[in-house]
Amino acid sequence: MRVDADAPVTLGITGASGAPYAVRLLRALNESATPVRLIISGYGWRLLAEESGIEGEAELRAATSDWSRVELYDPLDRGATPASGSARSRGTVICPCSMGTLASIAAGTSRNLIERAADVALKERRPLILVPRETPLSLVHLENMLRLTRAGATILPAAPGFYHRPQTMSELVDFVVARILDHVGVEHEVGRRWRSGEVSDEE
Length: 203
Ligand SMILES: Cc1cc2nc3c(=O)[nH]c(=O)nc-3n(C[C@H](O)[C@H](O)[C@H](O)COP(=O)(O)O)c2cc1C
Known about the structure:
Blueprint: E1 9-13, H1 19-31, E2 36-40, H2 42-52, H3 57-63, E3 70-73, E4 91-97, H4 99-107, H5 113-123, E5 128-132, H6 139-151, E6 154-155, H7 169-184
Parallel strand pairs: 1-2, 1-4, 2-3, 4-5, 5-6
Helix pairs in contact: 1-7, 4-5, 4-6
């Protein structure tokens, strides 16, 4: 695995349920001053509107802190910077990742810039973190995840734990986002790290 710690993170947002994870993740990356190459599919925008009430770029900017290090790309432009293996990259995160996008990456079809960026991460041996959300999972979904894991991707399902006794939706969201940031190697203060004995019934 190649790690380029100062390079931008490529963040793809697709049309699986889980827009609040994407919004929180982008805000955390911006707050940590991490450069971000942002690509949002058509259905990604639809889910941002339906689940987080974010209707377009201006509202996404307002919800996700300082955009001075964010570059937003057209998902249909497969010739843009994230499409090239020669562009420096710390890794690619797709959050949330639809089963459709996951299947295309597993098949290597690169139909849009998000899928191409993922394909490049695999061939360049850079971190590729996919955050799928679907239930139940079919054999096709499971086989695609297995294939991608074998190819070097990390499948990080949007499946928060409950052992830290979350009280709010943001704590559940932070649980998943913290794991994503850990896997792409970004320092953060999102969520609480588990220490045994920390949670008690008296809290
Ligand atoms: C409200 C809504 C919720 C959806 N939730 C999911 C989901 O949780 N997981 C999934 O794989 N697809 C889900 N889909 C379907 C995808 O959006 C659809 O397959 C789309 O073509 C994905 O395209 P994209 O990967 O290019 O964004 C949902 C669609 C809508 C409209």
